[in-house]
Amino acid sequence: MYRGLTEAILRGETDATTTGKRIVLPANFVGGARYMIHNYQDAVATGKTYIWRALSAALRSTCDIVLAVASSGIASLLIPGGRTAHSRFANRTFG
């Protein structure tokens, strides 16, 4: 805190109404950490989908059996022949 205050004074910002005020950026702001994290997560998700598709295609090309399951419906749509684990193995929850 003191370092930020000292830097503001050295820059000549003596108006206390704007010093230390929080700025809320919109979700589509492309210069911040949130944007970089979102891009990283997109790249990781794309890479995982590519690996699953390539691995299942390679195994199926050698006549091996591949049961592609996922924990959510959205994830199962990304995998060729994929289904959710509870629909593939007929797991039922009783409660």
TrEMBL record:
<dbReference type="Pfam" id="PF05970">
    <property type="entry name" value="PIF1"/>
</dbReference>
<keyword id="KW-0547">Nucleotide-binding</keyword>
<dbReference type="GO" id="GO:0043139">
    <property type="term" value="F:5'-3' DNA helicase activity"/>
</dbReference>
<dbReference type="GO" id="GO:0006281">
    <property type="term" value="P:DNA repair"/>
</dbReference>
<dbReference type="InterPro" id="IPR010285">
    <property type="entry name" value="DNA_helicase_pif1-like_DEAD"/>
</dbReference>
<keyword id="KW-0347">Helicase</keyword>
<feature type="domain" description="DNA helicase Pif1-like DEAD-box helicase">
    <location>
        <begin position="45"/>
        <end position="90"/>
    </location>
</feature>
<keyword id="KW-0378">Hydrolase</keyword>
<keyword id="KW-0234">DNA repair</keyword>
<dbReference type="GO" id="GO:0016887">
    <property type="term" value="F:ATP hydrolysis activity"/>
</dbReference>
<dbReference type="InterPro" id="IPR027417">
    <property type="entry name" value="P-loop_NTPase"/>
</dbReference>
<keyword id="KW-0067">ATP-binding</keyword>
<protein>
    <recommendedName>
        <fullName>ATP-dependent DNA helicase</fullName>
        <ecNumber>5.6.2.3</ecNumber>
    </recommendedName>
</protein>
<keyword id="KW-0227">DNA damage</keyword>
<keyword id="KW-0233">DNA recombination</keyword>
<dbReference type="GO" id="GO:0006310">
    <property type="term" value="P:DNA recombination"/>
</dbReference>
<dbReference type="GO" id="GO:0005524">
    <property type="term" value="F:ATP binding"/>
</dbReference>
<comment type="similarity">
    <text>Belongs to the helicase family.</text>
</comment>
<dbReference type="GO" id="GO:0000723">
    <property type="term" value="P:telomere maintenance"/>
</dbReference>
